[in-house]
Inverse folding.
């Protein structure tokens, strides 16, 4: 399985799009980071993950 590069690049450049899509357009973007994690398990990969930044 390959990372969806279009999705990844879009969210990397415009992270507010994700929050607009889920109905939370006023989210503090500096409290989140976006990464593409790979789990060490056969054929299991997350294309993108928003997680909170430490200290927020």
């Amino acid at each position: 399985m390959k990372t969806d590069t279009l999705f990844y690049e879009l969210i990397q450049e415009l992270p507010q799009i994700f929050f607009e899509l889920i109905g939370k357009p006023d989210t503090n973007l500096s409290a989140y980071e976006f990464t593409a994690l790979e789990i060490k398990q056969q054929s299991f990969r997350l294309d993108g993950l928003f997680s909170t930044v430490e200290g927020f």
The radius of gyration is 12 Å. The chain has two helices and two strands. Helices lie at 5-13, 16-21. The mean pLDDT is 81.
